[in-house]
Every structure is written in C-alpha cells, then in structure tokens.
C-alpha cells in the first residue's frame, strides 16, 4: 500500500492531499487542468523538495518527520507525455540504461521479458528518430519498467499521440495491466483511457481530493462530475463464456446477466471489461420490445438526476450488483412513467475491452 499526506504551498496554488494508492492495478488521477495531478506525481517521485508531510511505500518511509528520500533513492519509474528517450542510444541502449543502474539482486524484470511484454523485438536496433510516437512511448514504458520500480508514474503518456497511435498502444497497456503487479499511477484527461485501464481513481479538484475509490463506483456516482459529462460511461467486469466465431461475437457473463459483444478474435484472458456509454442505454418497460439490440437485461432504477442539458435525465440503475448509467430524455421518463425502485429492461450497445 502507498499512503501519502502532502502539503505544498505555491504562489496561487495549494496542494493539500492525503490518500492511498492500492498496491496492485492502475490508479487514475483525474481532474481539471491545473488541479495538481502532475504536482502529486512529482511529490511521489521526490521532485518537490518543498513538499511537507509523509509518504510510505510498501512500509518504507520515503518521507516522514521533515526528512525525505532524494529522487535517486526512490524506486520510481516515470513516463512522461513525450517519451524523452536518449536520442544517441538505440532502443536496446535505452532499455538497458535504467536496467544497468539497478543492483542485480533488486532486478524484478529482465530485458527479454519487457521486450516480449511490449512487443519491442523488431525495434531493438532502431534509434528514437526512427520510431513512431506510439513506438517511442512503448520503449519509454519499457525503460521505466527495467528500473524495477516499486511504483510506476505515467503522466499523460498518450496525450501527444494521434488517435491511430493511441489505438496502437492501448492494447499494450491493457497487457501490462493484466500482467504486472507494479502499482501504476496514471494521469490523463481522457475518460475513455480511465474507463479502459484504471482500477481505482483519485479525483482531484484545486489541489484537494474530491473523491477516491474503485473505478466502477466513481464513474457512476452522480454527486461527482464524471457521471454528468457528455461521454459518461459505466464499466462492467465480465467473465468470458465463449467466442462465437461464426458471428464474431463474444459471449460474456456477470452478476447482472449475459452479454454479447462484437470481437474480432477470442480473447487471451478469461475476464473482459465492458464499457457502456450512458447515451447508448435504452430503457423499456417490458422484455418484448427486443428490436435488434443484442444486449437486453433486467435492471432496477435506483435514482434520477438532472443533467446539464435541460432535456435530459441521468438515470442510475443496477444490473444485479453492477451500477449502470443511462441518459434519457425527461419526456421518455414521463411517457414511460419511470420511478425509483422500478424494474425495467435495458438495451445497450457495449464495447469490450480485454
Ligand atoms: N514549477 C511551478 N512553479 C509554480 N507553479 C507551478 C509550477 N508547476 C505547476 N504550477 C502550478 O501548480 C498548479 C498545479 O499544476 P499541475 O501541473 O500539477 O496541474 P495538472 O493537474 O497536472 O494540470 P494539467 O492537467 O494541465 O497538466 C497549477 O496552478 C500550476 O499553474
């Protein structure tokens, strides 16, 4: 477990932040520009000498009682927006740079494992200027991992990439997420990245912690801003039942029922996360109105909330124990006579993320 309690005063900005980062999985730092996300990463890495407070990582006191470990004593991997590779070194040279500085008995990962994990084998002899933006970021992540960090900090690692490069690198990040047990703190402005990669979230506002917790519950909490964003999303953790190759459909199960989602191939993993946009959810009173939607599940309404658009209502539901958001019009709510506590049927288009 990583526990911190930081206080940092700058002209015009005060960071007053206490929280925990679970020892496994990806913790997303999310919040408006200037809320202190990068500053928190820098405090964790020991790059803010003025910060007061404490930090303990896996029982080690990295900062306590007015003393703090300097950056070079902290086993932290840092990946920036621009990969910042050494231009005069090949990919192999970049990967080995951090690795060589770690004492042999403290090395948790070997270069061969990292090359395999991130698909770097075809790139090993190239120089950074011979790589695409996405490839450079993969090498930067590999280099950070080879320092055998106790904590991997990623500051908007996809922000400088175009949509195509982002899509190219995301499956590699999924793979890291499933394979490694190094805690990752991941800063992003993109809710799609959070919904895809994160397990936990710290929501920041003006240097303070607005909320913290598991991703699924924070995304669907209507007292927080995420549920009211245009691209509000719920995630459903599912188990793979089978891949129907004839139709390229993946059959999945979870506590709320069974789902089918389009998929090009059978997944490598036995669990798959599903992302459902609130605007893609349709509510109906009976199971008869099936239409062409593949996913049609019983649900219960847990509440209604106003939405920024005056025509809309944000509806919270549960599918079994899984929370789901739906954005419908106020007119539909009235026409269907929807009430809190009512049993309904939901139809939606789902996107699967391995
Ligand atoms: N070196 C610095 N000196 C003084 N103030 C700074 C410095 N770096 C950042 N700040 C200020 O500290 C506050 C927090 O900045 P920070 O970069 O942590 O925010 P952020 O949430 O990461 O923003 P963004 O999402 O835009 O990257 C902002 O008000 C910023 O202007």
Automatic annotation (TrEMBL):
Q: Specify the superkingdom.
A: Bacteria
- List the SMART domains: AAA
Keyword Cell inner membrane among UniProt keywords: yes
Record-linked InterPro entries: AAA+_ATPase, ABC_transporter-like_ATP-bd, ABC_transporter-like_CS, Mo/tungstate-bd_C_term_dom, ModC_ABC_ATP-bd, Molybdenum_import_ModC, Mop_domain, P-loop_NTPase
Q: Mop domain: which residues?
A: 290-354
Pfam families the record matches:
ABC_tran, TOBE
Q: A GO molecular-function term, please?
A: molybdate ion transmembrane transporter activity
Keyword Cell inner membrane present in the record's keywords: the answer is yes
An example Gene Ontology cellular component term from the record?
membrane
What keyword terms does UniProt attach to this protein?
A: ATP-binding, Cell inner membrane, Cell membrane, Membrane, Molybdenum, Nucleotide-binding, Translocase, Transport
Q: Record's PROSITE patterns?
A: ABC_TRANSPORTER_1, ABC_TRANSPORTER_2, MOP
What stretches pass through the bilayer? none
| Domain ABC transporter, chain residue ranges per copy | 1-231
UniProt cross-references to SUPFAM superfamilies, sorted A to Z: MOP-like (SSF50331), P-loop containing nucleoside triphosphate hydrolases (SSF52540)
PANTHER family reported in the protein's UniProt record = ABC TRANSPORTER I FAMILY MEMBER 10, MOLYBDENUM IMPORT ATP-BINDING PROTEIN MODC 2
Its name, as the record gives it, is: Molybdenum ABC transporter ATP-binding protein
The protein's organism comes out as Natronospirillum operosum
